[in-house]
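If your schedule permits, I should be very grateful for your opinion on a structural question. The matter concerns a single protein, recorded as an amino acid sequence and a row of backbone structure tokens. Could you please explain, in whatever detail you think fit, how the structure tokens follow from the sequence? I set the record out below, with my sincere thanks for your time.

——
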Amino acid sequence: MTDPTNEIILHNYPQSPVAEKVRVGLGIKGLSWASVEIPRLPPKPMLTQLTGGYRRTPVMQIGADIYCDSQAILRELERHHPSPSFFPNGNAGLMWALSRWTDGALFDLTVKIVLGSAGDALPKDFAEDRGRLYLGADWSNGLKAANADLPHLVSQMRAPLSWLEAQLSDGRAFLAGDAAGAIDAQFFHVVWFLRGRFAGGPNLLSEFPRLERWEENVTQIGHGTMTDLSAEDALERASTSSPRAIDGAVENDPEGLSKGMAVVVSPDLDGGEQPVSGTLVAASADTITIHREDHTCGDLHVHFPRAGYRIAEA
């Protein structure tokens, strides 16, 4: 039987581009994992029972440790499974710095292209949810603006695609060289989203033959070895596990955080989401971990990246 303290469970759904980034990461490391398919739209009661309210996709679970945001997920996969490394040529710091752009401005641009190009064809509930999540409170006007400005938005995407084409000009198989790494997963999910969800995506990408060759190389990596798991079984795994022990030292924190403090954590962009409450276990420049207790799952540690999240005293 699988040890729940080591079993990787990914709460995701097939169409999610950010989940695809993590699935590629699991493939790069050649890992076995269990997939819990979650709803595309809220409510997501079994997921938020684990997270305390966080509803974005994906979420990774290892026993009673819950990792929110792909930043936190990739960091934990590298810590828990260091070989093969996500950073085959070193430069981990540069990759994390670059990820703030791929996950931020570049992904936001892709979302505007995909949602804006769909126009009125988007189902109303999906448009409302994703529009609010990515475009803010004035999401309806944001979608209209994206549709009207689509040629400009595509021109802005064409530039970074040309940069990737140049990076691959020496015939390398992957962006950093002969071995795949986190940087490939970071860019691949954007390309995957463009190709699959933007009608003009295949034509746009066809302009960049080296990029398409790289895209096929990443696709051939696969997603590791996946098995299906029910949400009920995932909750049971959490209830029969204990969170891993963490050095709870909190030093030189700019916000004055201290171990044992009651805090709330939320994305630092207004997406209309529920904050997550808990007791601070550990905080560093990169991550924050809070303890929360659920009536079914028991003691849980919920892990967030520090970059991109706001922490406030409850």
The two ends are 40 Å apart (CA to CA).
